[in-house]
Amino acid sequence: MTKQDELDNLQQQIIDDKVCPELSAGATQLVFGDGNPDADLVFIGEAPGKKEDQQGLPFVGAAGKFLNDMLETIGLKRADIYITNIVKYRPPENRDPSPEEKAAFLPYLQKQIAIIKPKLIITLGRHSMECWLPGLKISQIHGQLKRIKGQAYLPLYHPAAALYNGGMRQTLLDDFVLIPSILKKIN
Q: What is the pTM of this model?
């Protein structure tokens, strides 16, 4: 069984297990993840937005376009990485995912990561960061490599935040260019 087969099975398991039925009822579809199942880098956001819900793919709206541009600056494209969210259904009105919703999806996200086995997990935004680095502030640790139980994490601001705040945009770009050297350090 390939990694892609395992990911497909896990995606079906979320549907079969009826995870967060109230979220599911308001969403068009499950937005599981996209990219290379053999990737060294896994990017994790918080939850799908409207465009993601419509297309069934993570990070396809404005924040996703900015993410694609940033990947290009370090010589990567979407096919080189894997990208997903903690919560796999769009919350109504694009609200933040609740702690209960994040907790319900976390075991599936952990299995998703276990299948891919990335060298580096890049958390996008505080909701994603808090899953692995609870109690820390993204404003204090963004762009800093963290290791927990043998897994490397790099917390970054969410690309959407940078779209609305010019100063944060430059911070995110500055943090993003560190990714290749951090990956070298891990190897």
A: 0.96
Residue spans of the domains in the chain: they are 3-186
According to DSSP, the residues that pair with 122 across neighbouring strands are 43, 154
Enumerate the β-bridge partners of residue 83: 34, 43
Span 169-185, pLDDT tens digits = 999 999 999 999 999 99
Residue type, 163: L
Which fold, 3-186?
A: Uracil-DNA Glycosylase, subunit E (3.40.470)
Query: What tens digit of pLDDT does each residue of 121-154 get?
Result: 999 999 999 999 999 999 999 999 999 999 999 9
C-alpha torsion 104→110→115→120, nearest 10: 140
Contacts of 90 (CB under 8 A, 6+ apart): 23, 26, 27, 28, 31, 47, 48, 49, 50, 52, 53
